[in-house]
Amino acid sequence: MAGRTAFPKPGRRRFWRSLTLVTSIATLGFAVFAGWLGLFPSPPDHTPVAGPAPSAGAAANDATDPHRTAPRPGPGRAARSDDRSRRTAPATSPTSAAKPSTVTIARRGSGKLALAPGGTKPFGTGPLVRYSVEVEDSLPWTPAEVAKIVDGTLADPRSWAAAGRARFERVASEDADLRIIIASPALTDDLCEPLDTGGELSCRMGGHVAINAERWAFGADAFHGDVANYRHYVVNHEVGHSLGKGHAQCPAAGRQAPVMMQQTKGVDDCLPNAWPLPSEL
């Protein structure tokens, strides 16, 4: 006996085609009508797009390693709805006897950078890195004040100048090998593109380091209010990327965190630390 075919006879085939066509037209008509009535939700205006996870190459494009997601609350803080952050910050100099003052950081500043005057003699041993210090001119610090902290950090025997990693010299030139910039959250985001710093983080991108003014003013939760030490950390961390250093993890509970750990986001079970560990030099 001949086997049965999987296809219907011609008459049936025409019938089912007609029925399918009528059903499709009816379904399409209902969808259009339902959409007009607002029965179905419309897509969001913006869907955050996650970018590639940071890799070993993050040393060249570091945002204290943010993923490309929608901006989120800062380290240990809830998101704020206003455009300014007003909190108590210490005096610029960690040795100053001045009382803490209230500092206001606008999310978006003037967008104009002021260059720290003068410079330093080269210090340390190793390849020469000529760096400049610039500050967005609407921020509450002068370029000279910030330069003093950056100079002191990089010249410290605990910093990268130790063990022949680099020789540093500050110059008053925008043509420096490395531009270290303190910028408002919005300008930091612009300088760090295509990385997403979310108005909260800092980065090293190409020939410049962009340090978020909120972090410079208030530090991060892992440092428990020690803003002076956090400033040493963020300078050493971002400059470390310019020297080819990638990110590190907490080696063990109770140990000092590597300076190349993303301590702005937390230190896990480690202790906060502003200086390169011997194993990082």
From TrEMBL:
Pfam families assigned: DUF3152
Source taxon at top rank: Bacteria
Residue span of region Disordered: 48-119
A molecular function GO annotation: metallopeptidase activity
Composition-biased stretches (Low complexity): 48-63, 88-102
Domain DUF3152 positions: 103-269
Protein name as annotated: DUF3152 domain-containing protein
Organism annotation: Actinopolymorpha pittospori
